[in-house]
Amino acid sequence: MEPFQKKIVLASQSPRRKELLQMAGLQFEVRPVDVEESYPPTLPAAEVAAYLAEKKARAARHLVQPGEILLTADSIVALEEEIFGKPIDVADAKCILQKLSGKTHQVYTGVCLWTPEKKRVFTGIAHVHFGVLSQEEIDYYIQHFQPFDKAGAYAIQEWIGLCKVERIEGTYSNIMGLPMELVYSELNAF
User: Fold this and answer.
1) Is 106 helix (H, G, I), strand (E, B) or coil?
2) pTM value?
3) Residue 81 within a domain
4) Is 3 within a domain?
């Protein structure tokens, strides 16, 4: 069976999401849109990524032509309801990684699929078990990998994911930025 063949419009500049869609063999075009990633402060962590994905879809609907499906997504990292977005500087990245060190956190990736006739919003979740990170390891990672464009100040496909993640419950692609098994299933149900 061939992969889903309808044209997808990815409203994201994320190189990781683009890479995942390419690896899955899906036809897509990137048409990014800038959206402020704000959300109600009372929203539970498990709902934030889906809220942001839907917010991005509302802002990008005008980019979609008839016969295309809009795909928007957002990922957040959470530890006991504390949400970690992209670090603003080195000090923030160090603080985030120190908090995640030796603990299990969640990566929520919200996805919105939209056409003028239909909308579907869903969330992938993965539990990531970090080993203990020494201050030297944190400094090394930040210096060599510059994780300032990544939620939670890390990328699973880089050094920290390879050397300090003890195990994951959920999918690797979800942690990278798109829960591909859910996306594929939902696209086919569309």
Assistant:
1) strand
2) 0.93
3) yes
4) no
